[in-house]
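Q: Convert this sequence to structure tokens.
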Amino acid sequence: MKFSILVAHYNNATFFRECFESIIKQTYTNWEVIIVDDYSSESEKNELKELIAGDHRFVLFENEKNRGVGYTKKRCVELATGDICGFVDPDDALTPDALEESIKIYSDSKIVATYSQFYICDENLAINKLFPYSKKIKNGRKTFFNIQFDIAHFFTFRKEIYHTTEGIDETLTSSVDQDLYLKLYEKGNLFYINKSLYLYRIHTNGVSQDKKKKGKLHTNWHIVLYNTLKRRQIQMLYNKDINTIESLPKFIFDKQNTLISKILRKISCLKIRK
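A:
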């Protein structure tokens, strides 16, 4: 199987150097890297081009103007030629066995996607801790919305299954990954790799760390959840019309984090492990 590593890039060439190095150290060797640059500055693009020059496995495409992360990530998938795809943010990195550990799961034809544990790192990519919320989830639940962020990096998926979904919503400026996870969750079984395969960098320029963008992040997360409910033909959620719910992230989180819900979830997790 060929693996397509997908990188949506925007003014991140300096951080991408460590991402690049982690990719070329992969123990699984049948891969390509599809980079779509979202109209970065010329200096950033030149630094990126210089880094990947001479390695035919890295293919760079450029948006003709700044189009946003939704459009750019969607284009990444469309340009991929591999059987399996996985996004890596340009300021993050992979462990050396990330592709190998992921690709072997697809020997089971019922698996449509995989996800793993990941490390939270500082600005220098030094590991601080393991992300605490990743865990094995139960497949096929209409009321699973990843509200606890059980599914996260390193997320990989079959390209052929992706094409049976609506695809990435190109209008989204955040929550793009969450949208992708939920769409693929509806198409078959997801497999949890109980091992950290991804290094997630926390730095001041990161989107999730930008306080000015918190409101937009919340709005996009609401849109993703609302569209998920519509796809699953759920009009009433916890006895409330979804059109009357002002904040679906808060509403669902509150409903799924009552004491009873936590106990039931813990019992469910124990059953899954058996």
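The radius of gyration is 19 Å.
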